[in-house]
């Protein structure tokens, strides 16, 4: 015993002495040294020790990733690292050595992290690690090195209850039996037990090289944290965020574009254009955006240069028109006036004598007002030239009232008329000429009425100082209620612009959510300030009723209904209600409470056995009479319910149309739906024939069944305007310059210096009526050229410059083939690359095929563009969001090709499960069980007899079958069963369920379910087994039993109604 004790003491002493002293023990000789590569066996990692006669050197063609690695065999504390170069360099040469290196550490030998870069032979530090790497960064001649690493084992013991073991976060206690530096088995007693700690970090942190401290992991530095847009790092975690206009997906990483236009049209008054991450409002022709960038206001074209009209200009909502005086009409420009009749040259002398009679006939002409005023004032003779066919810059109407002279004393040849009449007898031989000034005719814009109509809406109908009054129809209002009248001025114009009534949108309002609050003890009222939010509306004029709650939100106990009314400027209103409930404690009627409790106990006592008996009888009869009493089974409130959504049998494809105006009526074939029970209602956001504005709008159809399940189908209607548009591309080595001439668009190419048009042309113009360019080629590239040699034959690889007009370029240059074409050596001509091919440089000898999922729009294209992927389509087959974005094929359609302009419809009424189907195999339909059993739904069989059911169903895809008894027979009591599959060719079309020897336990309800990925269908039948010497099970029903079932049901309902009423009364007393 003493010997063992002495040995034990010696072990403890040696164990205690082991490892004492300074932390300067060399590790290389006891460690495993490896490297990324080696120059030769003489310069392998085995020669990396500081005592080596050579050194470690990497391979001859080394990379930046070379390293020397040391595995200590366990965690050590590294205090110093000393390096040196090659030990024995060749004669007269300096040693190859590393002058700067990077220290990397690892706890598992797989993942390394940078610790520090060192540029001196001896470096001091403190690292707790098992693996260490040295990566050469800078070197002399070649990165060779020797090294020694000094340190010691970790402090022993280290306990987590002592300053958390020095760990900054998680400290895990470790303990093993250790002798002479080697550790074995976990400790169970303290004797010879060595304890240490392992530091770990929480999620989102990493352990630093010192093995103690944790640092935050910036997840955003690695692939942006897998965030779509913005990655925000935080201590121990990170968060993905989206820019304005995007919404974070449920996966917390992906950002989805918010289509603001789907929510109340983005608040836009007319057109809403959604863009990636934003949206903007636009206006139809004749309108402009107001300062709020949402509301469109009419442009008064007449306010600028009279709208370009030569005579009268009338502004209307969204447009304007030019007007002409009597005797004139608008020419083809719809701006200038031209004469309808030809008036001869007439000389008339105006005699200002009001006493002479006025005659009836009228002669109308148009001259500047300034001339009329001057001549009439001076009472001088002047000439009216009425034979001017086209009048420009004429603003006033002169109506001269006269009558043909009776005695014909004044003829067309007369050049003058006496100024005065000598006698009364000659008074009829002359005329009194009266000057009458009138204003232009007015027009009624939408929602506007003018009175008096017969005079205000015709030319010459209103004279100087006469007025026209404007009024507005329902839904419209005057811009200025104080200004509703226009007065005709002596200048022949109205005193203000034409009045157009403004249309006000119907108001809408969304009320705050209902408020429920509880009275404080002994309080009679409750203040809900802070609980009641503000209503939302598109108008500012909102009132709350009753009025008293506008200033104070203190409500009494009970229920109060608040009504919010929103009204616009023309008195149209919208309203909604919010219910405020203030709960309070009522007095407790103890006597009534006791009486109700007693009544409920008595009812339960007498009805207990009736209820239990009824439940079992009811369930038994329901199963037995499932076929005979189908209508009664609907009253059993079975615990199953319809959870199957309606199925889309047809969903309309996306619609793309180009129109000439700003809106158009669009029609389509409406989607269709089916359901396992019945589709009771189909709603849609738009109907065929509705009017759509320029832009893109999603139409949604939703089908509902009786259980409230719904399924939706959506498609896109996108309208673009037909108009001459400047090509979006630019020619090679030149610039496309376009100018508008009226509605025509003219474009020409301006080549860079030392470049020549590939085809000679003066330019091309687009006809707005046909939208066709002439010549058709608008975008012509500029290419290198050389002068035509004297031989008249162009050198390879050039060709004589082609011409798009009736004559050639006088310079006769030889031009190279542009990109998108190839030079054919045989034909000595430039040939356009076919669709799907292009060329990258001038006069290429070959065309290059576009990469997969890319193609060209036409022959001779220079650029391969992205095609729509499988399962998608666009208006032109290309994925260009600025023109035609790709959209997924709707339910019921698929596309198995790239670059489709439309999706393929599933044949024969088949459909797909979801959008974006890529194969005909994705088309199918919910299987339908066409038959189950013998034709009768009630099957009789004798005991020990053979019976079989056949269940037939069709897909596609091919369904699976399940035939099962609702309540399976107990094990060993049912007859033996064999199942056979019915095939048509290789396809399974049904299943045959055979009971070889039926027993009484086989009687009951059976169902057959056919299932595929589109859904399932079920049919049922009842099997009656005729027992020897008695009647068949399941066939014992009678009219008496049926009447008993109905009676029991009525008694149970009566009892339940009475019980519910008593409970409600009880609740009323307690609450």
TrEMBL record:
Residues 437-503 form the Sushi domain. Pfam families: cEGF, Ephrin_rec_like, F5_F8_type_C, FXa_inhibition, HYR, Ig_3. GO terms for biological process: signal transduction. The chain crosses the membrane at residues 592-623, 1045-1067. Residues 15-152 form the F5/8 type C domain. Residues 1-23 form the signal peptide. Residues 298-334 form the EGF-like domain. Residues 927-1024 form the Ig-like domain. Residues 501-584, 641-721 form the HYR domain. GO terms for cellular component: cell surface; extracellular space. CDD domains: CCP, EGF_CA. It comes from the Eukaryota. Keywords: Disulfide bond, EGF-like domain, Membrane, Repeat, Signal, Sushi, Transmembrane, Transmembrane helix. One of its GO terms (molecular function) is calcium ion binding. InterPro entries: cEGF, EGF, EGF-like_Ca-bd_dom, EGF-type_Asp/Asn_hydroxyl_site, EGF_Ca-bd_CS, FA58C, Galactose-bd-like_sf, Growth_fac_rcpt_cys_sf. Gene3D superfamilies: Complement Module, domain 1, Galactose-binding domain-like, Immunoglobulins, Laminin, Tumor Necrosis Factor Receptor, subunit A, domain 2. PANTHER family: CUB DOMAIN-CONTAINING PROTEIN (PTHR24046:SF7), SIGNAL PEPTIDE, CUB AND EGF-LIKE DOMAIN-CONTAINING (PTHR24046). This is Sushi, von Willebrand factor type A, EGF and pentraxin domain-containing protein 1. It comes from Pocillopora damicornis (Cauliflower coral).
């Amino acid at each position: 015993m003493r010997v063992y004790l002495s040995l034990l003491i010696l072990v403890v002493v040696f164990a205690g002495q082991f490892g004492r002293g300074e932390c300067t023990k060399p590790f290389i000789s006891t460690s495993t040294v490896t490297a990324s590569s080696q120059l030769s066996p003489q310069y392998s990692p085995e020669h990396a020790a500081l005592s080596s006669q050579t050194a470690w050197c990497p391979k001859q063609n080394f990379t930046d990733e070379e390293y020397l690695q040391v595995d200590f065999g366990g965690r050590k504390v590294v205090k110093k690292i000393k390096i040196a170069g090659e030990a024995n360099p060749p004669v007269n040469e300096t040693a190859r050595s590393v002058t700067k290196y990077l220290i990397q550490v690892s706890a598992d030998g797989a993942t390394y992290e940078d610790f520090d870069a060192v540029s001196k032979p001896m470096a001091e530090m403190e690292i707790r690690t098992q693996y260490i790497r040295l990566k050469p960064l800078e070197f002399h001649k070649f990165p060779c090195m020797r090294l020694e690493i000094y340190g010691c084992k970790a402090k022993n013991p280290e306990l987590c209850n002592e300053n958390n073991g020095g760990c900054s976060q998680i400290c895990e206690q470790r303990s093993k039996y250790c002798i002479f530096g080697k550790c074995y088995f976990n400790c169970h007693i303290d004797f010879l037990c060595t304890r240490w700690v392992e530091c770990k970090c929480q999620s989102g942190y990493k352990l630093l090289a010192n093995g103690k401290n944790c640092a935050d992991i910036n997840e955003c530095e690695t692939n942006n944290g897998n965030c779509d847009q913005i990655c925000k790092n935080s201590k121990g975690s990170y968060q993905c965020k989206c820019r304005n206009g995007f919404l974070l997906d449920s996966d917390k990483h992906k950002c989805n574009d918010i289509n603001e236009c789907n929510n109340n049209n983005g608040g836009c008054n007319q057109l809403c254009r959604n863009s990636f991450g934003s949206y903007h409002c636009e206006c139809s022709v004749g309108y402009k955006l107001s300062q709020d960038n949402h509301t469109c206001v009419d442009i008064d074209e007449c306010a600028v240069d009279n709208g370009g009209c030569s005579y009268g200009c009338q502004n209307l909502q969204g447009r304007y028109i030019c007007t002409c005086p009597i005797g004139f009409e608008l020419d083809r420009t719809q701006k200038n006036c031209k004469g309808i009749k030809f008036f001869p040259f007439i000389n008339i002398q105006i005699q200002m004598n009001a006493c002479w009679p006025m005659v009836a006939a009228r002669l109308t002409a148009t001259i500047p007002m300034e001339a009329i005023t001057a001549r009439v004032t001076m009472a001088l003779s002047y000439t009216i030239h009425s034979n001017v066919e086209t009048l420009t810059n004429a603003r006033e109407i002169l109506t001269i009232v006269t009558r043909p002279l009776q005695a014909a004393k004044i003829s067309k040849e007369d050049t003058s008329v006496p100024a005065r009449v000598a006698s009364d007898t000659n008074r009829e031989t002359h005329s009194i000429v009266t000057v009458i000034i009138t204003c232009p005719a007015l027009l009624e814009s939408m929602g506007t009425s003018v009175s008096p109509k017969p005079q205000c809406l015709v030319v010459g109908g209103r004279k100087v100082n006469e007025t026209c009054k404007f009024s507005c129809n329902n839904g419209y209002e005057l811009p200025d209620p104080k200004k509703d009248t226009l007065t005709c001025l002596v200048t022949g114009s109205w005193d203000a612009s034409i009045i157009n009534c403004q249309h006000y949108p119907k108001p809408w309002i969304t009320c705050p959510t209902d408020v429920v609050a509880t009275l404080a003890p002994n309080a009679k009222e409750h203040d809900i300030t802070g609980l009641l939010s503000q209503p939302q509306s598109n108008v500012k004029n909102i009132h709350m009723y009753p009025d008293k709650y506008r200033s104070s939100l203190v409500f009494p106990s009970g229920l109060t209904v608040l009504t919010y009314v929103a009204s616009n400027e023309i008195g149209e209103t919208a309203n909604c209600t919010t219910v405020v409930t203030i709960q309070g404690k009522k007095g407790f009627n103890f006597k009534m409470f006791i009486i109700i409790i007693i009544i409920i106990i008595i009812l339960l006592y007498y009805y207990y056995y009736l209820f239990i008996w009824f439940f079992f009888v009811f369930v038994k009869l329901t199963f037995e009479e499932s076929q005979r009493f189908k209508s009664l089974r609907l009253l059993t409130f079975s615990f199953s319910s319809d959870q199957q959504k309606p199925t889309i049998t047809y969903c309309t494809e996306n619609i793309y149309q180009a129109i000439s105006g700003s809106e158009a009526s669009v029609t389509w074939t409406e989607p269709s739906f089916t359901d396992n029970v019945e589709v009771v209602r189909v709603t849609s956001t738009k109907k065929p024939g509705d009017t759509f504005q320029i832009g893109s709008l999603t139409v949604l159809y939703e089908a509902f069944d009786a259980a409230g399940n719904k399924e939706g189908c959506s498609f896109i209607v996108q309208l673009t305007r037909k108009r001459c548009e400047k090509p979006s591309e630019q020619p090679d080595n030149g610039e496309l310059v376009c100018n508008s001439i009226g509605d025509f668009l003219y474009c020409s190419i301006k080549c860079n210096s030392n470049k020549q048009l590939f085809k000679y042309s003066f330019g091309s113009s687009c006809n707005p009526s046909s939208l066709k360019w002439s010549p058709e080629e608008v975008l012509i590239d500029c290419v290198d050229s050389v002068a035509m040699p004297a031989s008249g034959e162009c050198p390879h690889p050039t060709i004589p410059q082609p011409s798009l007009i009736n004559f050639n370029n006088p310079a006769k240059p030889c031009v190279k083939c542009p990109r998108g074409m190839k030079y054919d050596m045989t034909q000595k001509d430039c040939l356009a690359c076919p669709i799907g091919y292009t060329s990258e440089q001038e006069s290429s000898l070959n065309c290059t095929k576009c990469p997969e999922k890319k193609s060209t729009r036409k022959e001779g294209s220079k650029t391969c563009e992205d095609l729509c992927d499988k399962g998608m389509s666009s208006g032109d087959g290309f994925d260009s969001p600025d023109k035609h974005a790709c959209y997924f094929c709707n339910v019921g359609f698929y596309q198995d090709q790239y670059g489709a302009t439309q999706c393929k419809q599933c044949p024969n009424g088949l459909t797909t499960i979801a959008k974006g189907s890529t194969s005909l195999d994705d088309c199918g339909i919910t299987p339908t069980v066409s038959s189950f059993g013998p034709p009768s739904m009630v099957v009789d069989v004798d005991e020990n007899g053979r019976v079989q059911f056949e269940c037939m169903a069709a897909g596609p895809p091919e369904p699976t079958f399940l035939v099962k008894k609702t309540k399976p027979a107990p094990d060993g009591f049912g007859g033996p069963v064999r199942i056979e599959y019915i095939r048509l060719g290789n396809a399974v079309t049904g299943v045959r369920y055979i009971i070889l020897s039926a027993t009484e336990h086989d009687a009951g309800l059976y169902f057959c379910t056919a299932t595929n990925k589109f859904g399932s269908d079920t049919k049922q039948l009842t099997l009656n087994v005729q027992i020897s010497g008695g009647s068949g099970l399941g066939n014992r029903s009678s009219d008496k039993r049926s009447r008993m079932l109905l009676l029991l049901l009525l008694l149970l309902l009566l009892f339940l109604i009475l019980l519910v009423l008593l409970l409600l009364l009880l609740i009323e007393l307690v609450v």
